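Milestone 3.1: sequence recovery, worked example.
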């Protein structure tokens, strides 16, 4: 669809590039011009408005910089999607319904933060003190080095999304393209759109991004690639060493690409840590969060990266919150070094894996295709995700429709296994096999 003539006539009277850009942006915000609409060719709009082509070209350039539109070469300029509010909407829970939609860890498998707060020794913090606690960075540095991730430069941030946002802001500008897994975590997609970036979907399978899909996406000349090496949300995909080799062969063709790895589940991911950043010559960051292992209220992650990226992230952080609370950092350091917590995390890892595998096996027995080699979630392709989710809700089970997570991939539902109890996997599988009128799409997720 192109810009309607009536809308173009509303632009008359704006004779400067700034005026034209602002008028077009107002049309977008008022839904007169929709996401995906193509703006008129530069010369055509210039003739209709009685201005020079250079003026319209400058206006389009402003729209691209602000993230309102993006260029498609000889195919012109197209309006971007706006940040998704659906992805940020909380899911309500009817009385008596079992909630398997939250993605949260099992509270019984996360440590009691009160123990850490009572027992840790923390001196008062003053302005100008170091932003990070050496004890925490020392522990996390050891984790990264064990996993083959360079840890010369580290900084603390307020959770995985905070780390991803600050890393993207450190390198990208509005209108840049960013590769995202499809399906992906909805807040990551919403974050990219809120930063006025253009998401480029990359198909995935159980082993993560598919190399041929990445190769095709690289033709769009993206500035960054955000991926989840393990416990991918919503599919549970986890990269293995062979997939890493295959992806590096593709990615090495674009050595300046910013690589951002979201290790949000970290110690309870259910799969070994693997990375694409080992030896990467371009900018990179690995964001390791502790919300899943230690509890959602511990809003803390540590970012490892190249020196420039970490310096930019840390410098920008100083201009905002300044630092992550030393109370949180000290609590995390105490818990990660506490033998009882380490033992609890081992039980959590085993429990999540058992619950996930039990549901996968129950679905397989009933002929239901499902995916989830790691993490907290099982992804079930279905023909009609909204109908399946509604029928499951009527039967007493709340799951997430795939529309929250998909960009262009096929319909599915996401089931969180973190709090599944004994016997529930069988009961849920019975209901799902009965209500889905099952018609699987394909073995990959797109």
């Amino acid at each position: 669809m192109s810009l309607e003539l009536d809308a173009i006539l509303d632009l008359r009277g704006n004779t400067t590039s700034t005026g034209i850009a602002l008028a077009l942006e107002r049309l977008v915000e008022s839904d007169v011009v929709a996401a995906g609409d193509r703006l008129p060719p530069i010369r055509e709009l210039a003739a209709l408005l009685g201005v020079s082509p250079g003026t319209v070209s400058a206006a389009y350039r402003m729209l691209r910089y602000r993230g309102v539109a993006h260029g498609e070469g000889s195919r012109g300029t197209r309006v971007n999607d706006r940040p998704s509010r659906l992805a940020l909407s909380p899911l309500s829970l009817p009385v008596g319904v079992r909630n398997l939609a939250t993605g949260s860890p099992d509270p019984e498998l996360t440590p009691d933060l009160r123990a850490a707060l009572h027992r840790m020794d923390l001196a008062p913090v003053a302005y100008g003190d170091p932003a990070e606690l050496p004890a925490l960075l020392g522990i996390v540095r050891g984790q990264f080095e064990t996993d083959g991730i360079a840890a010369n430069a580290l900084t603390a941030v307020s959770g995985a999304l905070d780390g991803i946002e600050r890393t993207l802001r450190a390198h990208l500008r509005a209108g840049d393209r960013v590769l995202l897994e499809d399906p992906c975590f909805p807040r990551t997609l919403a974050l990219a759109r809120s930063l006025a970036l253009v998401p480029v979907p990359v198909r995935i399978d159980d082993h993560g991004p598919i190399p041929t899909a990445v190769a095709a996406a690289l033709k769009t000349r993206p500035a960054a690639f955000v991926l989840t090496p393990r416990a991918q949300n919503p599919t549970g995909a986890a990269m293995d060493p062979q997939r890493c080799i295959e992806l590096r062969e593709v990615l090495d063709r674009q050595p300046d690409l910013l690589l951002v790895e979201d290790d949000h589940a970290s110690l309870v991911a259910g799969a070994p840590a693997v990375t694409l950043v080992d030896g990467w010559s371009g900018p990179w960051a690995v964001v390791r969060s502790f919300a899943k292992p230690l509890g959602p209220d511990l809003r803390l992650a540590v970012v490892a990266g190249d020196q420039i990226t970490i310096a930019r992230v840390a410098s920008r952080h100083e201009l905002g919150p300044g630092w992550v609370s030393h109370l949180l950092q000290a609590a995390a350091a105490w818990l990660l070094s506490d033998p009882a917590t380490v033992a609890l995390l081992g039980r959590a890892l085993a429990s999540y894996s058992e619950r996930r595998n039990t549901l996968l096996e129950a679905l397989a027995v009933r002929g239901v295709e499902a995916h989830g080699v790691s993490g907290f979630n099982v992804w079930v392709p279905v023909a009609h995700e909204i109908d399946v989710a509604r029928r499951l809700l009527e039967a007493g089970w709340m799951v997430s429709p795939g529309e929250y997570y998909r960009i262009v991939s096929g319909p599915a539902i996401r089931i969180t296994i973190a709090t599944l109890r004994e016997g529930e996997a069988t009961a849920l599988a019975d209901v799902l096999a009965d209500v889905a009128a099952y018609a699987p799409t394909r073995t990959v997720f797109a």
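The CA atoms of residues 298 and 328 lie 6 Å apart. The first strand starts at residue 69 and ends at 71.
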